[in-house]
Amino acid sequence: MAATTAGAAEPPGLETQHREIEALLQNHDLRAGDSWYLLERRWFEQWKEYVETGDQNSSSFPGQIDNTELFEELESYRLKERLVENEDFVLIPAEAWHKLLAWYGVVADQPALERKVVDLPSTVKVEVYPVEIFLCLHSDMENVLTAQFSRVDSINVIQKTMRKQFEVPESAETRLWMKSSETSCERLRNVHMTVLDSCLSSGMTVIMELRNADGTWPSSRPQIMRNSVEEQDSYKGQPGVCGLTNLGNTCFMNSALQCLSNTPPLTEYFLRSAYLDELNFTNPLGMKGEIAEAYADVVKQMWSGRHYSVVPRIFKTKVGHFASQFLGYQQHDSQELLSFLLDGLHEDLNREVAEEAWRNHRRRNDSVIVDTFHGLFKSTLVCPECHKVSVTFDPFCYLSVPLPVSKERVMEVFFVSLDPAAKPVQHRLVVPKAGKVSDLCAALSLATDIPANQMVVADVFNHRFYKIYQADEYLSCILDRDDIFVYELSRGSVEEDGDEVVLALYLRERSHYRDYGSGSSSYGTSLFGHPLLISTPRGQCSQESLYQLFLQRLARYVRPLDPSEEVEEEEEADDEEEELYKTQTNGVSDDEGEDEDEKPGPSKREGGEGQGQGQGQGEGSASEVNQSNDSTEPAEAGATNNVGKAGCSREDAPPPRRATARRPTDADVPNAADGTLAAGRQPSDEDEEEEEEEEDGEDGEEEKEQATPHSPQPNERLPKRKCCHAKRRKQLFAIQAVNSNGTTERGMGEGGCAFSFTSQPYVAIDWDPDMKKKYYNENEAEKYVKHQSMEVPHKQTTVQLQQCIELFTTVETLEEENPWYCPTCKKHQLATKKLDLWSLPEVLIIHLKRFSYTKYSREKLDTIGTGLLRLPAEEDGDGRGAPSRYDLIAVSNHYGGLRDGHYTSYARNKDNGQWYYFDDSKVTYAREEQIMTNAAYLLFYQRQDKIRQPTLPTPRDGSSSPSQSANEVTSPPQDGVDGATSCVNMETD
């Protein structure tokens, strides 16, 4: 207070002065926010002595108020440290101070020592020593000012002080940082918090930062992608036409941000900084304003017109911090991100005013998000028993509308005929979406005239049967990308009294050399070509019979031996071969087999489980083995390898699964009691027959001998071959019993073991590389014919958006898992439910439910939406206004399938009315006809009466864009749907 002179007002009598001041001192409580004043104690004691004398001429007259003794020095009038109340000074309420000041005045130039009463956590007291803080600008850290603030002052008081001291214009957007040490700075986000609650203390520095013209903050400038500082600072483009850098699978986030950024009312709200006055830092459902601030930073950078592309790294970090599902860099759904963001912005900006369904909602929820995006559903429930009608109203932020789901499905399969000379034929079939494998066979039967019960459907992958399907399995377990083969079988293998067994035949090529280095002296094999299902009479499973059968079945692409080549050759076996034969069973040595039992199969690295099943043949197997290194030694050409006794397959090694293969179900697990004969088990009478081949010098006639009833134990050696120098007929390949994975395992084919016809028998034919090269025609083996059904173009389904909305509002019956409690019937009922749009928002977001999940199938619907650009909506349900009409302003696109894909967006710039295509950091011009594609996923509409006319002329042509750059706007790629379809070939995330 400025100095005043004594006698400014005629003082009352001394007794009156004493009585009035004493009454104020005794009856005045400390109340937070009140002002009290420091008074030098000796002056106050002298005043008391003076008024108590009752003599106005007393020598104890105190004179003007003088607080000189309380100041450290008289230039700054800085208060001395560690002053003690009632020793160095007394505190008097403001009313008492003003009376004394009026009666006695104060020494010239001395300021009044006004102090506030503060409500601290443990006490209420007068704050004698305020917080002394250093102030400076981020752009000029050397120019530091000192100022004092009460602990109950708000941060806004500091901000206003700094604006005044540093002459910062009110239009400039600022933010404050609290520097507590040389290396530690913290944002002072909530300007309404007090100095005390912000943990500001004396000696700290508050730094004011001004937002750059390009929307960035000086402290986070490196977050901008630019070719050079000079080029970036000189660039001036269309505001809002700015890419977003993909940080690694963040195209879903970029797509949603671009759509939201091109929503005019929300963007203008942030661009004019209206959010600063509405940041809610105390909402327990919010994110302390951090999501709103991070989003504001991205929007201001995108709409500054100074950037080709922005790196939204800080925003991504904030999202992951508050929504852990978005941590890391996995692919996510743009609709899920949008839902989180709208909810987060709403809670961070919730005004929470306290003013029936809509009004109740607004009492608790009041933000720019509610103003812009929220509408109201009318939900009508009708009890099926008493017909009680219940009507409720619920708010919504976006509409998730279903796409009409077709009940049919198009599948492509390869039909393999019984005719060896016929090539496989590719068919395109229309089948029930919720149908079974039998329905697929029935559809194929109409096209081939082959009875459906003579067909077996199999999934072929990596040259083996990934799965052989049963007729009653659902088609939903077959994916569109699966290679499905349908094999024709003979009647004898499908009739109840038929005497034929179905063999699964694999083709293998063995390596040139034995792998002695691995400790096993055996040949490695690898699968090739397409497997086959072949039926044969049960009694004709001898080596020679199967050889002739396979040769006949492969006749289209396997050249038979010429008569001149079918020369009997003498087999020569040295001592090493003889010893190897003694210690091996079907190409697996005893030592090798023991090693294999102790270590995991090589297929562990493929990390998959699968299954193989044969129609009418029981269930397959479920273990893991790799085909490429199976350590088996097929019998040498023409050597005895009696499949009739060696065909017993344990079937515990299915083929490796695809990288994204389905999980095996309980139905895929083999039956433990499948009747398979294990090595060393006493065979039955039917299984005891053992065939031995003897070469007759003249006619080559084969004779059968009865096998001994005793099967050799694992540690017993097989008898020596009868003749180490016997003669044999030259053969193209050797036959080997294998498991469902195409691998020969220890114990397969040991004496007395026969095929198990209660499970699928698997057989491999092993080719010597030289023989395969000479007699196997790979080109012919891969040929197939396209059926005329493949020439019929696949029709793209189209649907009007209005149909989707009508489907959304149709009457439906509640599911059993979610009944409604009828208050009249007093029990839960499966009521009918109907949703109506009661009131509509300014910006209507429609989510097309392209991802369909039912108990029968999982798929992405590729329906093309038509009528997207204009959306006539019915009159608001409450009848308050005319019918609402909406124009499309942005689209989030999804290209790809259920598990992967890429997100982009189309958006209409609010300033020039031009459509743009945003693909992460790249931006191109777009036209309206490009937008109607089967990729449209999220649609943003704005009411026509709220759309502001463009303030800038629409660019005449994208090609007129200035110098082209990777991040600059270029002309549209193509016209119409084709232009959008080209995006499918872009690299996915």
TrEMBL record:
Its EC number is 3.4.19.12. Residues 599-608 have a biased composition (Basic and acidic residues). One of its GO terms (molecular function) is cysteine-type deubiquitinase activity. Residues 562-720, 949-989 are annotated as: Disordered. One of its GO terms (cellular component) is nucleus. Residues 623-632, 957-973 have a biased composition (Polar residues). This is Ubiquitin carboxyl-terminal hydrolase. The keyword Protease applies. It comes from Anguilla anguilla. Residues 242-944 form the USP domain. Belongs to the peptidase C19 family. Residues 609-619 have a biased composition (Gly residues). Residues 12-118 form the DUSP domain. It comes from the Eukaryota. The keyword Translocase does not apply. Residues 563-579, 589-598, 685-704 have a biased composition (Acidic residues). PROSITE patterns: DUSP, USP_1, USP_2, USP_3. One of its GO terms (biological process) is protein deubiquitination. It catalyses: Thiol-dependent hydrolysis of ester, thioester, amide, peptide and isopeptide bonds formed by the C-terminal Gly of ubiquitin (a 76-residue protein attached to proteins as an intracellular targeting signal). Keywords: Hydrolase, Protease, Thiol protease, Ubl conjugation pathway.
